[in-house]
């Protein structure tokens, strides 16, 4: 089983590491229940991408004709789980499993803005302390020279 990790909003490709020859039937399933999400019959030249009743993968699945690899675009945390592919041909049947983990984006726009503002404040405070320190030491030098 291969493990794949990605951040929310990115694309993830589940690589089959195989090349198709034209007579394969490729079936992708998701989750412990094994819900059918994609089916490609190369011989019949038919590709079907399935939507759950909740339309979890609506317009976000793509399958590579040459390899059968599945790409999930604009990933969400709800896309995390087990994916299974079965590639059947007249010569052999290949089974692969993938564990996909989609983690939340580290920060949203508001959080990034707050971090930027705090960083700027720390920078300004640092400059203020340095200016004060330089003026203080300059003043002390003047006093010691006058004595």
UniProtKB/TrEMBL annotation:
It holds the Pfam family V-set. Residues 1-103 form the Immunoglobulin domain. PANTHER family: CD48 ANTIGEN-RELATED (PTHR21063:SF4), LFA-3 (PTHR21063). This is Immunoglobulin domain-containing protein. The lineage of its organism: Eukaryota, Metazoa, Chordata, Craniata, Vertebrata.
């Amino acid at each position: 089983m291969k493990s794949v990790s990605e951040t929310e909003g990115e694309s993830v490709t589940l690589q089959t590491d195989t090349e198709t020859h034209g007579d394969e039937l490729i079936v992708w399933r998701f989750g412990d229940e094994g819900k059918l999400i994609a089916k490609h019959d190369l011989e019949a030249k038919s590709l079907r991408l399935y939507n759950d009743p909740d339309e979890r993968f609506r317009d976000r699945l793509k399958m590579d004709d040459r390899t059968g690899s599945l790409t999930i675009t604009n990933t969400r945390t709800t896309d995390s789980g087990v994916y299974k592919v079965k590639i059947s041909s007249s010569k052999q049947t290949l089974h692969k499993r993938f564990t996909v983990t989609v983690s939340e984006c580290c920060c949203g726009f508001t959080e990034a803005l707050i971090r930027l503002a705090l960083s700027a404040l720390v920078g300004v405070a640092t400059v203020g302390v340095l200016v004060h320190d330089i003026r203080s030491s300059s003043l002390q030098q003047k006093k010691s020279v006058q004595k």
